[in-house]
TrEMBL record:
Coiled coil: none
Domain DNA-directed RNA polymerase subunit 2 hybrid-binding: 3-265
MF-aspect GO terms: DNA binding; DNA-directed RNA polymerase activity; ribonucleoside binding
One BP term from GO: DNA-templated transcription
InterPro entries named among the record's database cross-references: DNA-dir_RNA_pol_su2, DNA-dir_RNAP_su2_dom, DNA-dir_RNAP_su2_hyb_sf, RNA_pol_bsu_CS
Gene name linked to the record: POLR1B_1
Source organism per UniProt: Perkinsus olseni
Enzyme Commission number, as recorded: 2.7.7.6
Name of the protein described by the UniProt record: DNA-directed RNA polymerase
UniProt entry keywords in alphabetical sequence: DNA-directed RNA polymerase, Nucleotidyltransferase, Transcription, Transferase
Keyword check for Nucleotidyltransferase: yes
C-alpha cells in the first residue's frame, strides 16, 4: 500500500488519527527501519471493527489522546524507538462474558434474556438489568454491595447526587430526609444509626420495603413470584475476560504421541462436535472388551497388510472359551479412552462396554 492510501489512512508521520475507524487489512502505522532505510507498513489483522483510542510514543515523543483530531502539542521528537497504539472495540455482551461489581462480586453471564421476559417490580414497574444468584454473598462476604443496593436506591428516590455508602460507619438521623438530625455542615459526621436502618427508613418513607426487597412479577406469565427479591441500584462493570478472546479451538497443532491429546493450549476440535483424538477400534459384543481382539489365522492367510486390518477381528477370550469365532464390532471412540482402558488393565481393572444389537 503506497501513495494516496497511506496519506488517506495515516498522518504524515505514519501514525493513525485519533478516533479513526480501522477495518481488517487497513494500515495502522508505518515503521521506518533506521538501519536499512526501508519503511514497513503494519496492518490491522483482527476481524472486528476498531477505533483508535490513544497513541503513545515511547522514547522521547510523549503521548497524546482524546477525541478525534487531537494532536501532540510538542510534536514527535527524533529518537522515538517504540509506539503503542490503543484500540477500542465496542462489543455487545454475550453469554460467557465476565462482570463484576466494585466490591469484587464477580460472575459470568449465563443467559441473555429478552427484556420483555424479564420480571418487573410490582411497586415501580422497573425490570432489573442483571439478576444474579444470592449464594455469592455468603461466600465472598460482599456486605458493602448490599448496602450499596439500599444506598443507590435511596439516592435515586431522593435525587441526591452523592451518598456515602460506607459499611463501617454510623449515620446521623433516620434517613436521608431527616434534616432535623442531619448535620448540614458535615453530612458525613458519625452518628448512632447503622447503615441498613439509615437507608431503610428512607425507603420506607417512599413506600418501599424496609430492607430493599420487592415483589416481582413474571415477565412471561404476569403472576407474582413466590419470593421477595432484593432489588436496588448498584454499579456493575464488564471485565476484560470475554468469550471472543478466549475461545480455544484450532484445526492443527502439536499432540502428545502417547495420548494423542494437545500438548498445550486450545483443543484441536470442538468436543461437542468431534473429538480431536477420535479413532476407530474393535469391541467384543459378548464380553465388552476392547483389548482382546485379534485377527483369525484364516484372515491372516487370506489377506495381507491393510486388507487384513480392514477385516473384522475375533475376540480371543470368547473364541477360546466357546470354541467358535466371535466377531468384534467397530466403534468410534476417543483414543484417550482406549489408553485409559489399557492403564486400568495393568491394575487388574476391567472395563466392559455394552454394544447395541444393530452394530
Amino acid at each position: 500500500v503506497k501513495g494516496e492510501k497511506v496519506v488517506k489512512d495515516l498522518d504524515y508521520d505514519g501514525i493513525p488519527y485519533i478516533g479513526q475507524q480501522v477495518h481488517e487489512g487497513d494500515p495502522i502505522c508505518r515503521v521506518l527501519n533506521k538501519g536499512t532505510g526501508e519503511a514497513k507498513l503494519e496492518k490491522y489483522k483482527e476481524g472486528e471493527v476498531a477505533w483508535v483510542e490513544q497513541v503513545n510514543m515511547i522514547g522521547g515523543g510523549g503521548w497524546w489522546g482524546g477525541g478525534a483530531g487531537a494532536r501532540n502539542p510538542g510534536g514527535i521528537k527524533d529518537g522515538s524507538e517504540r509506539m503503542s497504539i490503543k484500540l477500542r472495540l465496542p462489543r455487545n455482551p454475550v453469554v460467557g462474558d465476565k462482570f463484576s461489581s466494585r466490591h469484587g462480586q464477580k460472575g459470568v453471564m449465563a443467559i441473555l434474556w429478552p427484556q420483555a421476559d424479564m420480571p418487573f417490580s410490582g411497586t415501580s414497574g422497573i425490570s432489573p438489568d442483571i439478576m444474579f444468584n444470592p449464594h455469592g454473598m455468603p461466600s465472598r462476604m460482599t456486605i458493602g454491595m448490599l448496602i450499596e443496593f439500599m444506598a443507590g436506591k435511596a439516592a435515586a428516590l431522593t435525587g441526591m447526587p452523592v451518598v456515602n455508602a460506607n459499611s463501617f460507619r454510623q449515620y446521623r438521623g433516620k434517613g436521608l430526609l431527616d434534616t432535623e438530625h442531619n448535620n448540614e455542615k458535615d453530612p458525613y459526621a458519625p452518628g448512632d444509626t447503622t447503615a441498613h436502618e439509615y437507608f431503610g427508613e428512607t425507603l420506607k418513607k417512599f413506600g418501599y420495603e424496609y430492607l430493599g426487597a420487592e415483589e416481582l412479577y413474571s415477565g412471561m406469565h404476569g403472576v407474582p413470584l413466590k419470593t421477595h427479591i432484593y432489588m436496588g441500584v448498584v454499579y456493575y462493570q464488564r471485565l476484560r475476560h470475554m468469550v471472543l478472546d478466549k475461545f480455544q479451538v484450532r484445526a492443527t497443532g502439536p499432540i502428545d504421541p502417547l495420548t494423542r491429546q494437545p500438548v498445550k493450549g486450545p483443543l484441536l476440535a470442538d468436543r461437542l462436535l468431534k473429538c480431536s483424538d477420535a479413532c476407530e477400534d474393535w469391541v467384543c459384543p459378548e464380553c465388552g472388551s476392547i483389548l482382546s481382539y485379534a485377527h483369525s489365522p484364516e484372515t491372516v492367510k487370506r489377506y495381507s497388510g491393510r486388507e487384513a486390518a480392514a477385516q473384522a477381528p475375533i475376540c480371543r477370550a470368547c473364541s477360546t472359551e466357546r470354541g467358535i469365532e466371535v466377531r468384534c464390532a467397530a466403534v468410534t471412540l476417543p483414543y484417550v479412552f482406549r489408553y485409559m482402558s489399557a492403564e486400568f488393565a495393568s491394575m487388574n481393572i476391567r472395563l466392559r462396554l455394552r454394544v447395541q444389537e444393530d452394530y
